Each structure stands twice: as structure tokens, then as C-alpha cells.
Amino acid sequence: MPVKHGVDLEAFGAFSEHAAEHPEEIQFELEARGVYEGRAGHSLTKVEQFSLGGEEIDRETREYTFPMGAWREVEEAAGFVGPTDRPEPVEVALAALTGCLNVAVSFTALHEGIDVEGLETTVRLDFDPRIVLFLDEVENSEHTFENVDIEIEVSGDGLGEAERELLEAGARRSPVWNLFRLPHDVEPNVRTASSPIPGDD
């Protein structure tokens, strides 16, 4: 059983062949929920069920909770009572991008037969919070972020320019990178407790 990057290559090859012939079976519907904790800016974000190939998968053992908030120094300066320190949602979005880029690069290494021993991705950006703090108009949201800087460090035997170019091209297959980069129809729809559920008559 040949194994590379922790993957059984024969099983992966069979999976890829089946997925190519039946793409409808590898379509996902994903979701996350953020539950407000009664403190400005604080939520518990939950990742649980998902759908794969039109089938909902909802295991009791699959429940991941991420506390969201802000930086203690900022909460203290802003007058929060009992300031705490939590990952800020923008940071978590950047963390998701690093993880997904690592997925894309490692799958590229697997696909191209490249030996990778070390892989580390760092993402940075400048963040202007004036919009969310009501210090500027929402029409100026395009100024909230500067360009995202991405650095991917890869180590391993026999890595030359050809391998570097393949891995860099493969990084562009990252779904989260494309979620960041491409335009999507994203609109917040607010429903109060007394509002009818869409589709109900």
C-alpha cells in the first residue's frame, strides 16, 4: 500500500476516478452558525452538519465551537466591563485561508508527485475598523482592507523552480482563496422573531 502525505495512493486514485465520473456525488452544502452571547461582538460560532451529494450528514459527535470576540486591549479601551481576549472574526477568516491554501498546496504535491516535508502559510492584511464602529459610512467599505499578503514556505528534497511553479499554481485551487478573490452574491437577510419564515404561507 503506497502512502504519501498520509494518503493511500491507490485508494485516492480510485476515489478521484469515481469522483470524475460522478461529480454530483462530491457536491457539498456547508454552513456555520454564530450564536450571540449577549455581549457586544461576542459569539459562539458552530460548525456541525453538512450535505454531501445531496445527503445531509448530521453526526452527534461532529460539533465544533469557536469563541469569537476581540482583542482584550481594544475591549479595555472601548469600555467593555471585564475585557477578555478572543480570536477576532477577521483573524479567523485569515486562519481559514491559511488552512485552505495548505490543503491546495498539499493536494498539488500529491497530484504532481512532489515530496514536501514542511509547509507553512502566513496571511497578513491591514484592517481599518471604522465601518463596523459606525465611524464611517458603509458605502466606503472598500477601504476596510488593503491587499492580502500571502507567503507560502515549502521545504523538501529536490524542490526546484519547476516544483515551486507547480505548487504556486496549485495554491490557486484553494476554495477559500477563491471565496476571498471572486465576487459572490452575499447579502445579510435579517429576520426578527415575529417575522414569517421565507416560504411559509
TrEMBL record:
Q: Which InterPro entries has this protein been placed in?
A: KH_dom-like_a/b (IPR015946), OsmC/Ohr_fam (IPR003718), OsmC/Ohr_hydroprdx_reductase (IPR052924), OsmC/Ohrsf (IPR036102)
Q: What Pfam families does the record point to?
A: OsmC
Q: Which domain of life is it from?
A: Archaea
Gene3D superfamilies per the record? 3.30.300.20
The coiled-coil regions, if any, are: none
PANTHER family linked = HYDROPEROXIDE REDUCTASE
Q: What is this protein called?
A: OsmC family protein
Give the species.
Salinirubellus salinus
